[in-house]
Amino acid sequence: MMKELNTKKQDLKSASEDYKEKRNALNAEASTLAAKRNDLNKSTKELINEAQEYKKLRDENNEQVKENKAKRDEINAKANEVFAKVDALRAASNLTGPSIKDIRKEIDRLEFTQQTEVLTPAKEKDLVSKITELQKQYVVKKDQLESNTELKNLLDEAQAIRDEASEFHNVLSEYAQKAQEYHDKMISTFKEADKMRAESDAAHKQFVEFQEKADEQHKLFISAQKEIRDIDKEVRKMRKGETDGKKVASMEDVRKDAAELFEKFKSGEKLTTENLMTLQKSGML
């Protein structure tokens, strides 16, 4: 029985060491995954903060777009009022038709075509004819405007207002471009944060799996250690039983010898010191 218990104890010790090594290896892997997960969570948080900052900048620029658009529209409304007066004055002065500005733009366009394109003689003749006619109209319109001070002043006023509105339009366009840039950066950064969060979730899932496996090995290790302690207790009991048995057998022998010696003592035989000690040990003296 003692041999079987010792053999089982050795097997349990070997298994216990194996459980311990596996548990420690799994815990080490779980720690690595936990560190990876924590780093990814930290990076995710930093990206989200960065994206939120882009969002804040986008909203600030959009607010500037809104403010400058309101100012532009307000000024354009004033310009439209002046142009309405211009149209009314043109109609009253019989000055309807294309404006002098539009005539000048068309002349410039046709002259550019004449200079940059290869034309057939017929097309070039037709083009020159159109340019000549427009130049005549331009001169007439110019004379009409110069002779009509009120109309000229209204046109100058309207153009000045349009120029002011254009300044606000240019400013709002710049803010709109910046707002779009920050919006694109915000979207890109949020996507990167989502990707990193997914990696963090995957690392956490692996961490839980390794941790659970490590816990299983630890339970097996604890169970094996308990069995070893139980075997040690059983062995100690068995050894104590053997010792107690030997003590009982020894005392019986002492008593038997003491009885013989006591009979000799009663008959008057002389006993040795050792004989006397035996009698004393047996309790007969």
Please give the structural blueprint.
Blueprint: H1 2-92, H2 100-116, H3 121-147, H4 149-266, H5 273-282
What brief labels describe this structure?
0% strand; 285 residues; mainly alpha; Coiled-coil protein; 5 helices; single chain
Detailed description of the structure:
- The protein is built from five helices and no strands.
- The chain is mainly α and 285 residues long.
- The longest helix is centred in the C-terminal third of the chain and has 118 residues, at 149-266.
- The model has no long low-confidence stretch (mean pLDDT 84).
If helices are DSSP runs of H or I spanning 4 or more residues, what is the number of helices?
Answer: 5
Q: What is the tally of beta strands?
A: 0
Approximate strand percentage: under 5%
Gap between N and C termini: 42 Å
Sheet with the most strands?
Answer: none
What is the structural class?
mainly alpha
**Apparent shape:** rod-shaped
Helix content bin: over 70%
Output the radius of gyration.
Answer: 56 Å
Q: Mean pLDDT score, rounded?
A: 84
Low-confidence stretches: none
| Helix-strand pattern | HHHHH
Organism: Methanococcoides seepicolus
Pfam families: DUF7121
InterPro entries: DUF7121
Protein name: Coiled-coil protein
Task: Tell me briefly what this model is.
With 285 residues, the protein is mainly alpha-helical. It has five helices and no strands. The protein has helices at residues 2-92, 100-116, 121-147, 149-266, 273-282.
